[in-house]
Amino acid sequence: MSGEPERVANSAQAALLLDVGLRPLLDLLIQRPRSVGEVAQSLGVSVQRAHYLVGKLERVGVAEVVEVCPRAGRAVKRYRVLSRWFIPYEATGAETLEAFLDGQILPRVERFTHLSVGRFRELDDRWGFWLERGEKGSMLSIGTPRRKGYALFGGDEPFLLNIGGLRLTREQAGELKRRLLDVMEEFQTRDSPENPTYTFALMLVRGEVE
Predict the structure, then answer these.
(1) 86, 6 in Cβ contact below 8 A?
(2) How far is it, in rounded angstroms, from Cα 5 to Cα 32?
(3) What are the pLDDT tens digits along the chain (210 aa)?
(4) Is 150 in contact with 162 (CB distance < 8 Å)?
(5) CA distance 111 to 174
(6) Do 180 and 162 meet the contact criterion of CB atoms below 8 Å apart?
(7) Per DSSP, what are the bridge partners of residue 132?
(8) If you ran DSSP here, which 8-state letter would residue 202 be given?
């Protein structure tokens, strides 16, 4: 945990801090100070675009200049984002707490769906749903007429798209959570920038999602 004091976001700051499209930029500047040129190179955008994005953050006080390095012709500024922010629900403009969470979760779910469909199309042109009898009622699953979906989801391909329900005690559900987090922590130690990125999501809540 950083020793820096936390900053409480106002409405203008909250809008940028929670903007999914700005997350790559925030990730850069919250780690260490960077110049506009460094931002442009890291994000793969033009210097003009990087200057515009960093300027948006600076104007509302999310980013600040922490270094000015002399250079022939023009000094180079380096910007950073404070490493600890509290963003009050009330500052987001969301009418309900559900809308507040939706604003962060749904864009990521849409992106996850887009990536999943891309993998589907690599495998087959025809997709649909299989409705079948399961152990405790009906079971709906995504697949192809030749059942290639079953190989995709159940085989060794690193792809998983599943929503299920379990009847557990509170203690058992807590154990499930701990095991999932342990697995996630184990594989985070193997994270390497040379490897392709895989997106995962862990969700666990009491109640039924049909």
Answers:
(1) yes
(2) 16
(3) 455 667 899 999 999 998 888 999 999 999 999 999 999 999 999 999 999 999 999 999 999 999 887 766 677 899 999 888 999 888 888 888 888 888 888 888 898 999 988 988 888 888 888 888 877 778 778 888 886 667 777 778 888 888 888 899 999 999 999 999 999 999 999 999 899 999 988 899 999 877
(4) no
(5) 29
(6) no
(7) 139
(8) -
Say which CATH architecture domain 7-91 belongs to: Orthogonal Bundle (1.10)
d(CA 66, CA 83): 13
CB atoms inside a 10 Å sphere around CB 144 = 18
- Work out the burial of residue 49: count CB atoms within 10 Å of its CB; fewer than 13 is exposed, 13-18 middle, 19 or more buried: middle
What are φ and ψ of residue 193, in 5° steps?
-65, -15
Write the burial class of residue 137 (CB in 10 Å: 0-12 exposed, 13-18 middle, 19+ buried). exposed
Judged on CB neighbours under 10 Å (0-12, 13-18, 19+), 19 is middle
Q: How far is CA 153 from the centre of its chain?
A: 22
What are the structural domain ranges in the chain?
A: 7-91, 94-166
Q: Residue written as tokens 């085989």?
A: 155
